[in-house]
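REQUEST ID: PR-0412
SUBMITTED BY: lab tech R.K.
PRIORITY: routine
TASK: structure prediction, single protein chain
INPUT:
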Amino acid sequence: MITTVLVAAISPSAWAQYGPTMGWSSWNTFDLNISESIIKGQADAMVSKKLFDAGYDHINIDDGYFGKRDAETGQLKIHPTRFPNGLQPVVDYIHEKGLKAGIYSDGGYNTCGSFHGGDKNGEGVGLYEHDQQDCDFFFKDLGFDFIKVDFCGGDPIHNKDELDLDEKERYTAIAEAIKNTGRTDVRMNICRWAYPGTWVNDAGFSWRTTGDIFPSWDSVKGILAENLYMSAYSSKGHYNDMDMLEVGVNKWENELTNEEAKTHFGMWCIMNSPLLIGCDMKNLSTANLNLLRNKELIALNQDTLYQQAYLASKVNGCFILVKDIEKAYDKKRAFAIYNPNDEAREVTLKFSDIDLADSVALRDLYKKKDLGKFYETYEVEVPAHGARIYVAEAQTRLERTLYEAETGYSSAYSEIEWNVCQYSQADFCSGGYKAGYLGKSEQNSLQWSNVYSDLGGQYKLTIGYMCGESRSITVNVNGRKVRTISCNSGAFDRVGEKVTTIKLNQGENVIRLSNPSGWMPDLDYIKLECTRPNSVDAVNATSAAPSAQAYDLSGRPATASTRMRIQSGRKFFTK
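STATUS: complete
OUTPUT:
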């Protein structure tokens, strides 16, 4: 059974160490109106509803607990009626249940709730000018394990002081203050409402990539659209946060249908977003509770390869996302077929598009049901606003040949800075997205660092690009310049191709496209085809030992059909 291997491979203790944060946050349902009894009640519910057993272990107190600062010492005070006994009894209660405790603050003077919610107790309580004092209080004195740091106090349109603070400086300083407490296990969630830049990888455990979520399909769809292209910016202990879960009733009265809630949760799982429940856990319906406790979906989120599923293809308006699980570049993968459209869509998935071949056994993770074995393709109807998520175990793993631009990484990428790498929707591109505003510096390049070659050797590299004027691309492989190519497809909405030859090492390689002095073309994809593998010689089929593994000249293991072609005279190679 696929599920037995999948679920048993990961224990909750392993999940808690490095995987995306799982737990509950007070904001979506209770807003500023929190209290000691509410927080303790949610901790009770997490355990009694067996959500803790499913992997959820954080109880996070958001905005609303503040009681201003002491005028002389600057010490934070706690709200006298919401938490009359202070925060220590609450933290202790959470810890006594085996859970972790989370807290909230802001990078500036005031919190978001103080400015937008009119809570005067939240004015002047942000971390700004109190970094070490507050971090010592939170993590040394009280023993919190997690902190969400908002940025209303640093953005002039969200604070009464009109402070305009530098995100990198503030969050880096806060991370250093946490480090100075001596705690190495504290997780900081950076809440800047957009991906602020690759520096964030050194400061936070996770970071918000979009504005606030709301319990509507338009909100969920918009957040997914902004994260389909961000797989390259997620890694072990560093995650793209798509915001809190809207599964279940909250203060806005949930507007998601059952199908939309399934899509919301399943896609958050396979895309490795933190999973923070936002509803009142005491009032969860059976259907929503079962969805949130689906251990097979959760296992994708907490898989120990720590990969966010990447965009592999687009079929009939539906996005195909895929990632390795359990073992890199092996025969078991998880994939999703996501339909953002307002009507059902028929999808025929080619297994070769997710680098699998021959017989492929599928398991439906929503239904927790084995579907049997399939060959070459799989056909399914995906309902409007729906997703179908599977674990596939194949007879043969193929080398990846298509790398969409939206799966590439740029060290200059930021959703706050202008004139640097940007990803945007483009229906004329193969995966539905493109990468643009590239070039003008070595940092503002696009690279793929997980280009895997089974044997290494000579490859044909095809670059899909768009530009309506002459622009150039310099191809670098494993840190070495290969050549500079002049490009002009005739229009910025017309895809052209350029072909060159490169050499790849056995194992992982890095391909980087750059232009240090001028603008690059917009990019759609790169494709790879092995033309001459390393370490083996192409020989006639008749000279090979019957037991040897056969490969065709594209570098892919020979299947029954390719062996028939070999027998009729085509060359192959063995290892």
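NOTES: The chain is about 20% helix and 35% strand.
REVIEWED BY: pending
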